[in-house]
Amino acid sequence: MLTPHLRHPDEDQPTAVKGCATCTHLDRFRQRASAAGDGSAVSDANVRMRRHQKAEHSS
Ligand SMILES: [Zn+2]
């Protein structure tokens, strides 16, 4: 679980798409950042994942 105080309550947390290497990479990065208490890196990972998913996974 992510630590609640690291998250903006209204911030979207994009979900990694199964089988996608980029999503998996960003998801791991986000989990590591969260475990390290690095909230800005968590936000960065979310931004990058959203941007990637909009480009690669929009249907
Ligand atoms: Zn992806």
From TrEMBL:
Q: Basic residues: which segments have biased composition?
A: 48-59
Q: Where is the composition biased (Low complexity)?
A: 33-45
| Disordered: annotated span | 33-59
Write the protein's name. Answer: Uncharacterized protein
Q: Which organism is it from?
A: Streptomyces aidingensis
